[in-house]
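To close the section, here is one more complete example, presented without commentary so you can practise reading it yourself. The ligand is LARABZUK.
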Amino acid sequence: MVFAGGRRDDGGMEKLFVKVCGLRLEQDVDTAVEAGADAIGFVFAESPRRVDADTAARLARRVPEDVLTVGVFRNQAVDEVRRLAGLAGVRGIQLHGDEGAEDYAALRREGVTLIRATSCRESSPRYGEFGEDLLLLDAPVPGSGATWDWTVKDFAGAGDRWILAGGLSPQNVGEAVRSARPWGVDVSSGVESSRGVKDPALITAFVEAARSAR
Ligand SMILES: O=C(O)c1ccccc1NCC(=O)[C@H](O)[C@H](O)COP(=O)(O)O
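Output:
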């Protein structure tokens, strides 16, 4: 199921989808929701941002229905992904590793949004190749805060709903959106004061900068 987004601006245009990833604290979740984020990510992969299922479940319960909660994974067994996503009660699953079409098929269930995160390093990924709902185009190392040159890519194969990620920040997200014209954006490092520590003011600034970009 493709997350409907659901949030529209007053002119009826679909708003840019904004996801804030790697949240670990209640105040950061509340800030992202209040700022108008469409999705919130909880990292279950190896990372300084990693949360356990109980923490993610507690945070996810604070999030209103129209904001998508996403569990982020990398090269973890399908059963483990299913188990953690179920315990946390997230409605989206984002896979960053070498997962194949069979893994997406195994995780497919009613109501879940499957996000395939991949880098454009070797080729231009095509939307739908793995049965995903949304394609997220990221830097080679996820969550690193590194940017990549999105200006030289042809995103024709990425479909209508693809998400730009990798080194975005309140400073560069406007230019990135105008240049690459994604359906959505995703951020983690760019709204942190130090690795793994979110800054509420940066979260708010990011959502505002992204939204005013188009
Ligand atoms: O955040 C991590 O450390 C991480 C580890 C393993 C897989 C994914 C991870 N994060 C994903 C994200 O935070 C974002 O989807 C994306 O990679 C953007 O990150 P950033 O460049 O830090 O904004």
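Once you have examined the tokens, check your reading against these statements. Residues 21-22, 43, 45, 47, 49, 72, 74, 96, 117, 138-139, 142-145, 165-168, 186-190 surround LARABZUK (CB under 6 Å). The chain has one domain: 17-211.
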